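ESCALATION

Customer reports they have been waiting on this structure for their group meeting. Please prioritize. Original submission:
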Amino acid sequence: MKPKIIIGVVIIIAALGFLIFSGFKDNASYYLTVSELYAKEDITHADGIRIHGYVDPATIEWDSQAIEVYFKLYDQGDTLQVYYQGVKPDQLADAQQVVAEGYLRPDGVFQANRILLKCPSKYEVNTTDQKK
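Update from on-call: job pushed to the front of the queue and completed.
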């Protein structure tokens, strides 16, 4: 093969490798816990981030007129107020764990664009109801 063709092929392969690597790095699905969020000093309010925590069912405030929900996530003693505009997930109060995607507003409230729930995988059957 001619050296010009070999050099061209090497450049194309290197460029494709770089594009693939940078695409995976930018789309990595990592999340921070509530405690890790407060520990980070370089979080800007425009960052798209994921926060993992546990829902405090007593803090869920659903406004059906405005179609928005406020709730608190907690983790290792730290709490974070979360705001989500959209339909409240049916099992939000039952969720063991939540991952909220969004950004931290200047007022310290996490503005969620998407909420992912991890619900209990095993449900207890009420045996007294089955005997009736």
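Sent to customer with the following note: DSSP finds three helices and seven strands in the chain.
Escalation resolved.
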